[in-house]
Amino acid sequence: MLSRLASLSRPKAVAVCALPAVGLLATAVFAPLPFTVAQPGMTANVLGENKGEQVITITGAETRRTSGQLRMTTIEATGPDARVDLGDVFDGWFRTDQAVMPRDAVYPSGETVEEIEEYNETKMKESQVTATTAALNYLGEDAGDIKVTLRLADVGGPSAGLLFSLGIIDKLDGDGSGGDLTGGRVIAGTGTIDTEGKVGAVGGVPLKTQAARRDGATVFLVPKAECADAKAELPKGLRLVPVTTLKGAVDSLVALETGKGTVPGC
């Protein structure tokens, strides 16, 4: 998930001794580079409200009162038209609360700002439809009988799919035995999802774990393929739970809640 970074500190001062190199170095320092600088972004509890709107609204079926939180996570990145120079890159490389990423890894290349925003909005909408289908398929419910509306303002991209699906399941069925999937905890995570419930890798996981811990999470669901990235700069007090499928994520949360069964780790 991606949101816009409002400002960025840009150190400009560079001391050099070889005078003939000053012009070349200055050109390199101030020349725009094809990178984006990202930092931990906002998180949102999909079981509750975001900016005054309920994130998940379900009609056509009885819903449960839930406890705990399921927080989707984001990164904030400099905009696709922002100027990133060598000073920004050096600053980002030497900080744990920022990451320097190829611009093409964050934004589709060769597109205007308006087209990129439209693309991210489309991906978010597609993710919401897919997440709903995956959750109802998991529960064996007929999508024609149940209507799910998902609202998450100012966030684009597909990486909240897993958390959307888990939120729908928790509101409709909980842990399947009368309890909550969260067990009263603050659970965070990231991951795309397809209609069959397969969880896909995303990006910016080390930044998302920081955002999750900042906002009170003690457990982080991470696509298994990104375990190594998540472990690299894991905040203290945050437990990683790798997932590859929606069922696996549900099973892990139930095992955490009940103390029965195995909870995988990275």
TrEMBL record:
Gene3D superfamilies: 3.30.230.10. It holds the Pfam family Lon_C. Residues 157-239 form the Lon proteolytic domain. One of its GO terms (biological process) is proteolysis. One of its GO terms (molecular function) is serine-type endopeptidase activity. It comes from the Bacteria. This is Lon proteolytic domain-containing protein.
